[in-house]
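So, can you check this one?
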Amino acid sequence: MNKIDRPPQTQNLSSDLQRIQTGALVIIAFAVVLFLLVQARFILISLATAIILFSLMSDVIRFISRLHIGPVSIPNLVASIAAVVLIAAALLSLTSILLAQLNTVLVTTLSYAERAPSAVASLFSFMGPSTEQAIVDSLQSVQLSSYISTVAGQAGNMTQATVLVILFVGFLFGERIWFGTKLDNFVGDPVQANRIERIITSIIRRVNYYLLVKAVISAITGVMIFVLATLFGLELAVALGVITFVLNFIPNVGSIAATALIALVAHVQVGDASLTAAVFFCAGGIQFLNGNIIDPLMMGRALRLSAFGIILSLAFWGAVWGIPGMFLSVPIMVMLLVVCSHVPALRPFAILLSREGLPESEKMLDESPQRDLFS
C-alpha cells in the first residue's frame, strides 16, 4: 500500500510523527549550539569583536587607498597594514586605560571597605533600625577580597583577549582581497553571490553606523559624568567617566548601572543623603538627555530594532557570554534582522525583530542608514 492509498488516520499519524521528529531535532540542534557557544565563549567573543573591528576599518582602508602621495597612490596592502597597526595601537591603548582605571577602582574600594556597609545601609534607615543593622551584617559578611581577586583575574583575561583580537583582525585583513572570489566559487551563481555580498555590506554599514553613534553619545556622556563628579569632589571622577563610557554601550541596563554607580560612590565617600540625591538626579538627567533624546535623534530609524527584541537579545547573550555578550547583543541583533529580512523562510522573525514590523526590503540593501535620520 503506497502513501496515497493509506487511510486518513494513518496519514495524519505519520504527519504528526514527522512534526514531532522535526521539533525534537530543532531542540537538540539548539541545545548543541548553545553548549558550543558557552564552551567556546572566549574564542567566539574574540572572533566576534575582531569581525566588528574589521568591518569598522574597511571604510578606513578604502579611504587610505584613495589617498595619493604626489602621482603615486597608496597600495591596498599598505592600507591594510596601516589599518591593522591602527587597530592594534587603539586596542592596546584602550586596554591599558581600562586596566589603569580598574586598578584605581579596586584600590579605592579597599580603602572604603570598612565604612561602605554602614554607608549603604543608611540608605535604608527609613525601614527601621533592625533592617539597617541586618543590611550592615549582610554586607560585612561579604568576602570583598575574593571578589577583588576575581576581578583582577578577569582583567588578565582582557589582555589575552586583546592580543587574540589583534591576531584575528590581522588574518581577516589578509583574507580580505580573496573574499569576493571565494564567495563566487562557494555559491556558484554570480547573481546570488552579488546579493549575498550586498546583504553582508548592509550588515556592516548598519553595525558601523550604530557603533559610531553609540561611541559619540557614550563619549559625551562620559565627559559630562566626569565633569559632574569633579564638581562634587569625588575621588574617582576619571574612573567614573571611563566606566560610564564603557557601560553606555550596553543598551538600557548600562546607563542605569552607571547612574547607580556614581550615586553609590558619592554616598560612600561623603555620606550625605542630600548630596547623594543631587548626584543621582544630575547623573540620571544626563543619561536621560543623551539616551532618550540625543541618541534616538541621531539614530533615527537607521536600525529599526524592536525595543523588546533588544531586551531579549541583551538577556540571552548576557546569559550565554556574560558582560561581553551584553556589549555584542545589538550588533548581533542587527545582523539577524538583516539576514532574516532577505531569507523568505525567516522573514516572520524579521517582522518580530523590527520596530514597526517592517523588515528590510530589497531596495534598502543599497541605502545608507544616514538617510533615515530625522524622518
